[in-house]
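Below is a filled-in request sheet from our internal design queue. Each sheet records the structural input a requester submitted and the sequence that came back. We keep these sheets so that new team members can see what a complete request looks like end to end.

REQUESTER: design group, bay 2
PRIORITY: normal
MODE: inverse folding
CHAIN LENGTH: 55
BACKBONE (tokenized):
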């Protein structure tokens, strides 16, 4: 947990792959004990988004 009290805090995340922007200005917070679900088509976008949060 960080000093703001959130278990996860993402601010202004952008992601570009092969000159194509796949995420633009994504921001959100999760309090401890909350669950996050990612919905969408099959493909690498969800995995890449999770990897981006951890880098």
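RETURNED SEQUENCE:
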């Amino acid at each position: 947990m960080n000093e703001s009290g959130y278990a996860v805090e993402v601010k202004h995340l952008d992601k570009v792959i092969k000159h194509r922007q796949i995420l633009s200005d994504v921001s959100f917070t999760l309090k401890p004990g909350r669950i996050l679900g990612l919905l969408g088509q099959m493909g690498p976008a969800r995995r890449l988004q999770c990897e981006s949060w951890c880098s």
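SHEET NOTES:
- Strands lie at 8-17, 20-30.
- The first helix runs from residue 45 to 54.
FILED BY: M.R.
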